[in-house]
Amino acid sequence: MERPCVRVPREAGEQTRQALAAADLVDEDHEIVVDEEVLYLPVTDPDAVGDEYDVVYRDVPAHDPQRTPAELLGFDPSYERLGDVVILDEDDPDRAAEIARAILDSDLPVRAVIDRASKVKGDLRVRDWTVLATDGDRNGRPPTETIHREYGFEYRLDLAEVYFSPRLATERHRVTEEVEAGERAVDMFAGVGPFAIPMAARGATVVGVDLNPAAVGFLRENAHRNGVSDQVTAIEGDVRDVAADYADWADRIVMNLPHSADEFLDAAVTLAGDDCILHYYDIQHEDDPFGPGERAIRAVAESAGYDVEVLTRHVVRSYAPHELNVCLDVRLSQ
Questions:
Q1: Residue 39 forms beta bridges with which residues?
Q2: Residue 195: which of 127, 253, 270 has the closest Cα?
Q3: 38-52, 58-72, 84-98, 191-205: least confident range
Q4: What is the Cα–Cα distance from 26 to 303, expressed in whole angstroms?
Q5: Helical spans, DSSP H, in the chain
Q6: Helix (H) or strand (E) holding 325
Q7: pLDDT at 141
Q8: What is the number of alpha carbons within 13 Å of residue 291 lying toward its C-beta?
Q9: Distance between CA 28 and CA 211 in Å, rounded?
Q10: CA distance 13 to 26
Q11: pLDDT at 164
Q12: pLDDT by residue (tens digit) across 173-211?
């Protein structure tokens, strides 16, 4: 079907497209056509195009609408995207296989679909996965490996080897946006670096500790990938064994281990400098989501001579029926 188009030399195409877009004249329903060294940019209103442009009529193809998993299935499936990997949480194997095939057959840029096969377990905080479908990978990457992009940073990780939740992206951004240049920060359970790396990018000197050797390897790689390797020290080990090496050092501490962070409060107090912000994550019943964590922090910090000021009581998300994942932002001052 013939449509009005602006005809421009190829080298002027992007500049012209931007000018037409700024005037809201680009016809998004039709594709740009390349013919040797000339571009044809479909427009919605030829009369509104300025005299400086050459408007012609020619056949241009319509954009093919993207096929979504919901259109292929006839219902809207629940899934998470992490880079080019899609994560399901399905109990029915047949339904999981059907959803996986539709996701790969859709126009989503997906390389593999995996299903949670266990809860997070062990000191290394990993889970089992069932690989439901994959389009293969010429680079030999496992289907659980991906590169996740978040608020301008990118993280390579393998879900079979490390814990990572894309659902916490907003929370990580909230915390790291508070960091000021020159701070000294400790991420006590650093994983692949989604707190540590943005803090370093804001000018902090960061120590990231994790018991999982794979996570520490990815943390080092991701610090280099994001240009902050000189500001991030990655340490493999139990932070309770590391704390004495950085005693009284930290201006900011992240404690994102919500099921058992209280067991590490002695280490946090050892790390804390004279004036330190603590981001303490917890999971508690909705009837009293903040009380247990606040009482635990006060008991340990006050016995070490700190004044405790709760700056923020923040609900991160609903974790389970009647249980909330929360964060206490606390100032510890001597």
A1: 8, 34
A2: 253
A3: 58-72
A4: 66
A5: 13-22, 69-73, 93-105, 169-176, 196-201, 213-225, 239-242, 265-271, 291-303
A6: strand 323-333
A7: 86
A8: 4
A9: 50
A10: 12
A11: 95
A12: 999 999 999 999 999 999 999 999 999 999 999 999 999
Q: Which residues contact 36 (CB under 8 A, 6 or more apart)?
A: none
- Which structure tokens are listed for 272? 């804390």
In contact, 126 and 117? CB cutoff 8 Å: no
Distances (CA, A) of 126 to 53, 159, 279, 281: 58, 7, 23, 19
Three-state DSSP class for 53? Answer: coil
* Contact partners, residue 7, CB within 8 Å, separation at least 6: 38, 39, 40, 41, 54, 55, 56
Q: Which residues contact 172 (CB under 8 A, 6 or more apart)?
A: 150, 151, 194, 195, 198
What was the pLDDT predicted at 63? Answer: 78
DSSP result, 77-107: ---EEETTEEEE--S-HHHHHHHHHHHHHSS
What is the pLDDT at residue 138?
Answer: 57
Prediction pTM value: 0.79
What type of residue is 140? G
Task: Enter the DSSP assignment of 244.
Answer: G
Alpha-carbon torsion (182, 258, 121, 128), positive or negative = negative
Q: Which of 53, 52, 64, 57 is nearest to 42 (CA)?
A: 57
CA distance 88 to 74: 17
Confidence tier at 22 by pLDDT (50, 70, 90):
confident
What is the C-alpha separation between 280 and 73, in angstroms, rounded?
42
| CA–centroid distance for 139 within its chain | 23
Largest CA distance in the chain: 80
For the segment 250-306, what is each residue's pLDDT rounded down to a tens digit? 999 999 999 999 999 999 999 999 999 999 999 999 999 999 999 999 999 999 999
